[in-house]
Amino acid sequence: MTDLASLDGSWQELIAIALDARQQAYARYSNFLVGAALRAADGTIFRGCNVENASYGLTQCAERTAVASAVAAGARQFTQLVIAASGAVTPCGACRQVLAEFCRELPILLVDADQPQHGRLYQLSALLPGCFELLPDRPGH
Ligand code: THU
After folding, report:
1. Is a pLDDT exceeding 90 seen at residue 137?
2. 63 tagged catalytic
């Protein structure tokens, strides 16, 4: 566990946005609210929340919502991600692969929305070693 107060202002800003984005989660079926805040290389922050559906398999995770929003705005390089949920959960496998499409090394901070003073900091490469690749890596693409 990391004491979040020890992290710099760039993390504090993302933590507040991820917790705020979590309030918008559409989690009618699981009632498990997730918020995400993703910082692009130019500093822009993109937010995401989970969006569930009556056809359960169509549910969109918070992390993928943030990635899609960023890519639609022209951002493809990312420097920090905060995920806020009850219990500081790690991102699901599908979201790890989607994040790895754009950056192999991404620090990811998991914040427990019930105790927002604590969190866990990971590297994407540690959470997803040996991600699937179809083409050789092309930085910036
Ligand atoms: N969920 C996320 O938003 N991100 C994850 O990494 C794991 C799961 C959401 C999907 C669903 O709406 C709810 O959490 C319960 O699985």
Report:
1. no
2. yes
